Each structure stands twice: as structure tokens, then as C-alpha cells.
Amino acid sequence: MARAAGVAHAGGVSAFAQAWLRAERGLDRWFPAGTNPLANLGAIACLLFAILLVSGVYLFVVFDTSVGGAWLSIDTLSRQQPFPGGWLRSLHRYAADAFLLVTVLHLVREWVLGRYTRFRRITWLTGVPLLVLIYISGIGGFWLNWDRLGQYSAIASAEMFDALPLMTGSMARNFIGVDSVNDRLFSLLIFVHLGVPLLLLFGLWFHLQRITRPAVLPPRALTRGVLVTLALLAALWPVMSQAPADLTTATAELQLDWILLHLHPLAEQLSPVVAWALIGGFLLLLLALPLRRERAQPVAVVDADNCNGCRRCVADCPYAAITLEAHPNGKPGRQIAVVAAERCASCGICAGSCPSATPFRSARELVTGIDMPQQPIGALREQLEVALAGAGQGRVVVFGCDHGADLRQIDDQRVVCFSLLCTGLLPPSFVEYALRNGAGGVIVSGCSQGGCAFRLGERWTAERLAGAREPQLRASVPRERLRMVYAGRGQEWQVAVAVEELRSELAT
Which of 107, 251, 353, 361 is most buried by its number of CB atoms within 10 A? Predict the structure, then answer.
């Protein structure tokens, strides 16, 4: 059986999380590394939002904000200018549907994986209102078309607002009547439809404030895939206006957009009051999720005597939890890292970036500039020395991740395993140290590409080992004795295969 040193794996994963991760691993087989759509939902949502903004500008230029001209301007655009006008109109609609679907999936993923508490609390709480703004903007877009579908949506929305106790009059009667729908109302509607996306843009900026290097665009291959898919949908199945709105007659059969307008049939079937109760209850539940008590996690600790203010931990922290302040020793120009406890993810990526975190230091007790109290670098060095001394020469050392492949399942007496908070905690010099102290080869097993539990751990680790990021693995270290593996929970076989391949190559 493999010998595990260091910290044990994180607690059990819920059944929902396991099912989701299995789905992601299934898609990994069909998509190049790092381009799995389920692992890039937030970035895809940002891309779709950008498409909506660009296509919306064109539609606004040709849109007639009068009651009589609204439907005619959009319908003429689709029929007399199939490209680019009609195509952009269709692209706008499909992007709006996809924007809502992807956002909901993104929310579900974060909920299933438990990513809404502690350092993620503010990000979650600022993300939930964005869902409301997406609905408002999407539904308002149908009104502007002012066809039968827009008429239906306007009346249904007004009736829902009438059910609120805050309303003193009938919105459906006072604002959506034959005499009340005028050019001034349409000017107001276009102002709202433009204002809400601007508010959404500001909310998105606020949503990303506690994230370092947020992925606002998916990988190039995935970006091209999304653009091509939407472009083909818009070209092959163009969106056309339905009959113009007529408030003197009731709407009959409609081609309903069930993605954006599903709330209207829901209110009709259950009553507006029940619909509001469900909406309000759902939103309150989402906002209450981060309030549950969580076991406090030790955060990164800075040692003033060993921190030189190099900024590496600041640059590598995935959640902007570290800043630099004047050093307490009072020396001019000297700075020290300061950790915001409420933002710290307890991942240890900062410890792996610290230049003082090298096992080659002669100090008997290895104290680094920044470290994790639950898995200090000094303790890792001691555990590595003990493990290699007892294992003999030529053994394979595997550094893994608590959130990745479970190294306890590697049943091989010739393998020494270390499970870390994150592979980003591993200083590259530990690879060289292991090789110099008897290890035949070293394998670093990170989470699946793009699936790091702490966003950037596997990326920074790969760049450090490749010599593209400080601290670098020295060029003199024989790369043929090192492997980097990307394996999530349930993919332990990939680590086992890498061990056998490395051992076979070393033997030759």
C-alpha cells in the first residue's frame, strides 16, 4: 500500500458533487484539456454577455422607439436585411437564452461543489442579484419587439406586479392599455433595457473583485466553439417577429420562448401570488446559503523576520487575500505581506510562491516568509526526509492534492505519497530536493486542467515546474525524472499509469 505523509484528504464529497464531477470527467474525453464547458461556465457567461452588448448596439441603431415603428423596424430588419441585420437579431436572441442557461448552470455548479461560504461568500452574494437583472433585461427585450409575444409578456408581467401588495393601482390597466401605450412609454422601455445591462455590467465587475485574474473569456478553442454554434443557429433558424401587438384583441397561439419567459405560464397556472412566493423563497434560500456555520480554517501566517516583501504571494493568491504594507521594523522601503483572513482560501499557494520556502536552507527549523499552519513547509521537508530514508533508493515520490486524485488508493509499496492542501503549495525546489535525497522520480498530481479547487493552483504549479514562473525549478534538474499529471477525484488510475510509465523509462 502507498504510504501517505502530510495532511489527509479533505472530507467527503456530497453525492450531488460526485455526480457533477463524473459528468465533467465524462466531457473531458470530448474536449481538449482545459476547454470543458462545465468547468468554464462563468467565462462562457461573460462571453455571451459581450455578444449581447455588441449585437444590441446594432439593433438599437435601427430600432424605432415609437409604438407604431417598433414592430415594423425589427420585422423589416429581419425580412429585408437578412444579413447582417436579421442574423444579428437572431444572434442576440440565442445569446440571451444561452446567457440565462449558462448563468443558472454556473450557479448550480458552485452550489453543488459547495463554493459559496467563507472566502467565496461575497462573490456568491454579489452573483445572485445578477440572475434577477438577467431576467429583467431578457423579458424587457421581448416588450421592445412589440409583437404578439411582446404583448403577452407585457400583460403577464403587469398582472404579476398587480398581485404585489405594494401596488395601489392596476399596472395592467393603467400602463398596458390601448390609450396608455404610447411613444413616451416606449422611450422609457428602451431606457430601462439599456440601463439594466449597464447595471449588470457594474454588478459583474463587483462580483469579480475578490478574484485574481478572473477568466472573463473561455479558452480560445471553447470561444470559437461558442461563436460558431451561435452563428450557425442564427443563420439556419432565424428569429422572426410574430404578428404585431394589438391590445384590442387577446393573444391566441404563441411561439413562446420557454427559456426566458417560463415565469409567465408558471404564474398563469399557479397564480401570480404563488409565483412571487416561489421566486422570493428561491432567492432568499440562495442568499441564506452562505450564512450557515462552517468550521474555521487556519489561514496563511506571515513571519516578519523572513518576509522581504517580494510580492510573489500577492501575485499568486487566487482571491486577492494578500496585500503589502510597511514593514514593522520601520526600515524605509521595506514591506511585508499582510493576509486578510476573511479572504484567505487556506490553499497554501502563497507558501509555494515564497522564495524562502526552499528545503535546501541550512536552518534546522525551516521557517518561511509565509506559511500554512496546518501544513507548514518545514514539516513537509521533515516528512519527505523520513519517508525517503525509510523507502530506500529509487522510489517514486508523488505530490498530490487533497481535492484531486486520492493518493491513498495507490497500492504500491515503492511509491511515497504526499497529499497537499493544493499542489500550488509545493515549492518547486522540493522536486529537486526529493531527487537528491534518493527519489528515482517525482510525480506532481494536480487537479484536472481548469478544474482546480482554488482556481489557479494547477496552473501556477505547471508554470513553476516549466520554468515560466517564479519560483522556478532549476534548469539543471533532469526533466526526464519528473512528470506532471492532471487527475481529479475518481481518476486515480491516471496517477498509477504515470508511475508505471515513469518507472519504465527510468529503468531504460
Answer: 353
Residue 488 DSSP one-character state? B
Task: Kindly state whether residue 222 falls inside one of the protein's structural domains.
Answer: yes
- Higher-scoring residue by pLDDT: 391, 4: 391
- Partners of 417 in the β-ladder: 4, 398
Average pLDDT, integer, range 203-210: 92
pLDDT for 471 beyond 90: yes
Residue 252, in any domain of the structure = no
C-alpha cell at 312: 510573489
pTM more than 0.85: yes
Do 320 and 432 have their domain in common?
yes
Q: Are residues 370 and 502 in the same domain?
A: yes
Contact 438, 390 (CB under 8 A): no
Local structure of residue 335 (DSSP, 8 states): E
Instruction: Provide Rg for the chain, Cα atoms.
Output: 28
Question: Which segments of 250-394 are extended strands (E)?
Answer: 301-302, 322-326, 335-339, 370-371
Largest CA distance in the chain: 90
pLDDT, one tens digit per residue, over 207-231 is 998 898 898 999 999 999 999 999 9
- What are the phi and psi torsion angles at 374 (to 5°)? -80, -15
Q: Which pLDDT tens digit goes with each residue over 67-110? A: 888 899 999 999 999 889 999 999 999 999 999 999 999 999 99
Q: How far apart are CA 102 and CA 501, in angstroms?
A: 39
| 214 preceded by a cis bond (ω within 30 of 0) | no
Does residue 369 share a domain with residue 320?
yes
Alpha helices, H only, 212-363: 220-236, 263-270, 272-288, 312-316, 349-353
Q: Give pLDDT, residue 168.
A: 62
Sign, CA dihedral 245-246-250-252, equals negative
**Phi, psi at residue 404, to the nearest 5°?**
-105, -145
> What is the grid cell recorded at 305?
523576520
CA-nearest of 64, 63, 45 to 55 is 63
- Residues 120 and 118: their CA atoms lie apart, in Å, by 5
Q: What is the pLDDT of residues 53-68, one digit of tens each?
A: 999 999 999 998 888 8
Q: Quickly count: other Cβ atoms within 10 Å of residue 76's Cβ.
A: 16
CA angle 22, 418, 497 (to 5 degrees): 55
What single-letter amino acid sits at 141? G
Q: Are residues 185 and 287 in the same domain?
A: yes
Range of the domain at 340: 301-507
Residue 470: how many CB atoms within 10 A of its CB? 14
Q: In what order do the strands lie in the sheet with 482-486?
A: 3-6, 415-420, 395-401, 439-446, 482-486
Closest by CA to 354, choosing from 389, 320, 303, 404, is 303
β-partners of residue 399 are 418, 444
CA 393 from centroid of its chain's CA atoms: 43
Instruction: For residue 161, give the CATH number of its domain.
Output: 1.20.810.10
Residues 262 and 336 in one domain: no
